[in-house]
Design brief:
Helix 4 crosses helix 5. About 25% of the residues are buried. The C terminus is likely disordered. Strands 1-6-7-5-3-2-4 form a seven-stranded mixed sheet, with helices on both faces. It is α/β, with parallel strands linked by helices. It has two domains: about 110 residues, Phosphoenolpyruvate Carboxykinase, domain 1; about 70 residues, no CATH class.
């Protein structure tokens, strides 16, 4: 199952803002490749996952794009997107992965329009001096496969910020990161937003 995306006008965006402005939103700003994307959500758990997945952006920075997550039984599962202000209304999303994907798409849209920087949704590793790239849609196992490849013998990890690979200092059978923490770090890296540094077990 996927979600439809519909373009809306500036006036329609303003009407939606007025309709939902009194809702008790949780908010958080993320730094996605230099873009400030602001989340509005009614769910504290969505806000927590957002903050686990993305670097935070200072509250003093004005947002370049906005994601407004809403629950409305009178509406279908859909995204309403106003492209000039980069504002997306996400209705009835119960899967966080889609919220994250829309945030990345929104940042990608800003980077393309304003800076001619183009994004790829994927993961990359160096295995024995050869590049492995996994490019696929959401929910197809890129993170799971990347995590598995990190356990191979001759792996090296690259991040968007590294000029050389981060050396893997733990043998594959001794990866001691707790699963949740390791998975979360890998999720951040796979979306191009974080560093995963493996430290020698003490």
């Amino acid at each position: 199952m996927s979600y439809p995306v519909k373009l809306i006008s500036y006036d329609e965006k303003d009407l939606l803002y007025q309709q939902y402005s009194s809702y008790p939103f949780h908010t958080a700003k993320a730094d996605i490749s230099g873009c400030c994307i602001k989340l509005y959500t009614l769910s504290s758990s969505v806000k927590d996952m957002w903050e686990d997945n993305f670097y935070s952006m200072s509250e003093t920075v004005r947002s370049h794009g906005r994601l407004i997550c809403l629950e409305d039984a009178d509406r279908p599962l859909e995204v309403l997107f106003e492209p000039n202000t980069k504002t997306a209304f996400l209705f009835n999303f119960d899967y966080y992965g889609w919220i994250k994907s829309v945030a990345l798409a929104l940042a990608g849209d800003i980077l393309e329009d304003e800076h001619q920087i183009y994004s790829v949704h994927g993961a990359a590793l160096d295995i024995g001096g050869k590049g492995i790239t996994l490019i696929a849609p959401s929910k197809t196992g890129k993170t799971t496969h990347s995590w598995g490849l990190l356990r191979s013998k001759e792996r090296q990890l690259w991040t968007p910020f590294s000029k050389a690979p981060i050396p893997s200092v733990l043998p594959p059978q001794r990866l001691t990161l707790p699963w949740a923490a390791g998975y979360r770090s890998l999720m951040q890296w796979c979306t191009g937003l974080g560093h995963l540094v493996l430290k020698q077990a003490s």
